[in-house]
Amino acid sequence: xxxxxxAAAESIxxxxxxxxxxVRSPLVEGPTKAPTGTTxxxxxxxxxxxxxxTRLLLGSPDSGKTTPTGSPARRPLAxxxxxxxxxxxxxxxxxxxQRLEGLTAGEVDTAANRDGSPFLPRxxxxxxxYSEVAKQAAILNALPAxxxxxxxxxxxxxxxxxxxxxxxxxxxxxxxxxxxxxxxxICGSARGEGSSEAHRVAEGIRSVLYGGVKSYSxxxxxxxxxxxxxxxxxxxxxxxxxxxxAVVMHLDVTAARRTEDSLxxxxxxxxxxxxxxxxxxxxxxxxSHRMVYLSPAYEEIWGxxxxxxxxxxxxxxxxxxxxxxxxxxxxxxNGMSAGKFQYEYRIVRPDxxxxxxxxxxxxxxxxxxxxxxxTGVAEDITERKRAEIRIKRLNxxxxxxxxxxxxxxxxxxxxxxxxxxxxxxxxxxxxxxxxIGIVDTEAGLVKPVASAGDVRNFFETAxxxxxxxxxxxxGLVGRAVRAMTPVIxxxxxxxxxxxxxxxxxxxxxxxxxxxxxLDSKQTIGVLALYATEVGAFDEHEMRLLKDLxxxxxxAIDHIDNRERLGYLALHDVLTGLANRNLFLERVAQxxxxxxxxxxxxxxxxxxxxRFKNINDSxxxxxxxxxxxxxxxxxxxxxxxxxxxxxxxxxxxxxxLPEIKEEGTLAxxxxxxxxxxxxxxxxxxxxxxxxAFKVGVALFPDDGADADTLFKHAEAxxxxxxxxxxxxxxxxxxxxEAVAGRLTLENQLRHALDKEEFVLHYQPKVNLASGKLTSAxxxxxxxxxxxxxxxxxxxxxxxxxxxxxYEVGRWALRKAIEDYxxxxxxxxxxxxxxxxxxxxxxxxxxxxAEIEQAIAIDAHAAAGLELEITEGMIMEDVKxxxxxxxxxxxxxxxxxxxxxGTGFSSLxxxxxxPVDTLKIDRSFIMxxxxxxxxxxxxxxxxxLAHALKLKVVxxxxxxxxxSRLLRLLNCDEMQGFLFSKPLxxxxxxxxxxxxxxxx
Length: 998
Known about the structure:
Elements (H helix, E strand, L loop, with lengths): L3 H7 L37 E4 L2 E4 L24 H23 L5 E3 L5 E2 L2 H21 L3 E5 L5 E4 L1 H9 L13 H6 L6 H15 L6 E8 L4 E10 L8 E7 L1 H21 L5 E6 L5 E4 L2 H6 L3 H6 L3 H4 L6 H14 L2 E8 L5 E12 L5 E10 L1 H29 L3 H14 L5 E8 L4 E9 L4 H4 L14 H8 L3 E3 L11 H6 L4 E8 L4 E9 L7 H32 L9 H18 L2 E9 L2 H8 L1 H19 L5 E3 L4 E9 L2 H17 L2 E3 L2 E3 L3 E8 L6 H18 L3 E3 L2 H22 L3 E10 L5 E12 L3 E3 L1 H11 L1 H22 L6 E5 L2 H5 L3 H9 L9 E6 H6 L1 H12 L4 E7 L6 H4 L6 E4 L1 H7 L3 H16 L3 E5 L4 H9 L4 E3 L7 E2 H9 L6
Parallel strand pairs: 25-26, 28-30, 30-31, 31-32, 32-33, 33-34, 34-35
Antiparallel strand pairs: 1-2, 1-3, 3-4, 5-6, 5-9, 7-8, 8-9, 10-11, 10-14, 12-13, 13-14, 15-16, 15-19, 17-18, 18-19, 20-22, 20-25, 21-22, 23-24, 27-28, 27-35, 27-36, 28-29
């Protein structure tokens, strides 16, 4: 604290008439010469006024009183009358000015010194000085600080109103008001408490006065009689160029210090609280994202130092688990909008361990509503999340256990049990992958029999050791089989000896378990479960999974027993095929599927010719051998033994559960009969060729139930045997239709041989410019007997018979031929789009055929575009992508035809190597019918443009459709509005030939 002397100097009272005045002290000013008479010349006067010949001396009422040295009489400046003298001097100047004005009657306007140089009258100078001083005094009086002006020796020459008010308020009086006292001496002579601070103040003032420092400041406490107060003392020079005095200012900082003390106490309390709890308190600057405060719990939870977070604010975000960063940022943005945060995410510590964090907080706004801070709490909820995860895992295993227990009650066979158990494990247990394998003792392997989830080529790429059961094998499957106990890998990524580690990690699998399926003596199979979590298979979960495996094993044994008991009642012992009763049950089941699927079902009844002769001549053993060989042949050619039955001595039944066209069925029967007749059956070292007759009945046309359908197939068979026909349908009309379809098929084969097929071209135009851009080649059949045949009549037959492959190849070659002919003829050729059939795309020689077709000319590829339907691509996406990539590499463009009618995946659509997307005509028709149709077309166009695809609208027939498509930024259109498909010669003349004279 400063000594009492300094406080006393601050408390001097000034007269209210002049709040702040400068004082000319004898200590700082020299003597002033004055004139000794009333008249004289310029040489002996200090100055005069000139107006014609009149010359007057400036003076004052006391100008005649001089000291022995010729100077005006003066009194020493005392502290009590300093302001009085200033007032007297100002009064003298004012009086002299009035006298001068009276004598000259306002005629004097110029004053000159002894040299004749003009100057302003003294009263003018004094008034100007007084005005400037008054302004400065007013400014200083307006300041809240206590201000005193010191001369170069440290004497107080002036103080402001605040200085005076402080003294009055604290009842401190001093008649001299400290003006004229030496402030340096007051501070330097201080004694007692706080004297050391006063001495430092004196040294600081000297440093400023002598030019050693530019400024000096110190804070001190002043205990007045009424209260405890704090001040900030600041010393600055009066001028920067040379020391000629200083300004001493005492600013009351009591309120600020109290606020700081309060904040300091609050901050201490906050820190004590923040630093003694387990959660992380944080405060972040909203603009710079700089960490303003971070509690020490951060170091324990994050495993990083607080200093690193202060130095690198992004380290907080960088610690967030990569899988959680995007969602966490989105939640943060939502929190900024909603005004509060509460979300969870994972962090990765430097040691690789993962912790769960719950983030709660809110943005802090300033008075203007701007967000300036982000504050809140981050809580480590790892243990809680682990408990939740454990509970979730147990719940999902309970769900799997419950579902499979229900499955066991209703399951009919092993295959269904295994498939459904795998599906339930994935769907209800949320495992990434599951499969069940059965032990093949002879092969020493576990053979997978059912799977679900992300299997995709897992078994094809798995090394043999994975499923080997031989002793000494390293695979977990073999170990589980041999040890008859579960084998677990709870961290695939960190297991250096784990086979297929890379394949599992790519599938997102981090742990898996192999659980043996046991009977009373040995391992009969395994249940393998794969999870995305590390450490998914703990003790509690494995206990439930063992129960699950035990129940599956029990179900297998139950099914085996039940199958053995029911087999004889439902199967033919000789051939192993179903008997009539089981066959009819299966027909009835498939009928229900046919109704829901809106398709037909066929039952074929087969009668072996000459079987009785063979049986009688070669013996029953040979007859039985023939029946078994027939059963094997049928199973091989039908592909599913569940669709077959032996219904009597030499009669077999076949069910075809899905029939789309009767003509397809007729051709299938004919091919089967031909193949059967060509097959060699060996009986008693002899070769036999056997024929059969067939009766066919269709559901629902020929019967509403299985028994009726079977009886009508028998009736058709009897009629075929009686009439000599090889096969007959139950309905005569249907037989006639099939005969007509076969006739059409033969005609189409002749049409291909005789080159009766032609190409018509339908233009595609740019919607914006209306100009021709390309054309689609459409196959037409020019039958010499009837003329052009409608495509709807012969195209389905081409597809059913497989002729579409050959006709498609012809169309491809013909389109390229026309394009090259146009170029050679100097026409304006356009790219030609050719439709590709499913048979063509799936054929392994298709890519080679395209390459061969365009090899005839370097320009051929530029003139060709292949249109492939959406559904065709989705039948085998991987094969389609590979084929289309190879075709595009040749320079041929690809278009997806009839888009929107299939079930394509947007994920695959973005990967397909295509150039154009054609919107199906059904969507164009619906576009003007309802807002939904328009919205759908708009969505398709936007989607295609987002994928950088050109869009063509098919089937445009009205101006309204064209107008809407232009508004939706569709690229091109094709339809009757512009042109129907035209023969090649008309298309060339109308669209490719330049106008005459052009």
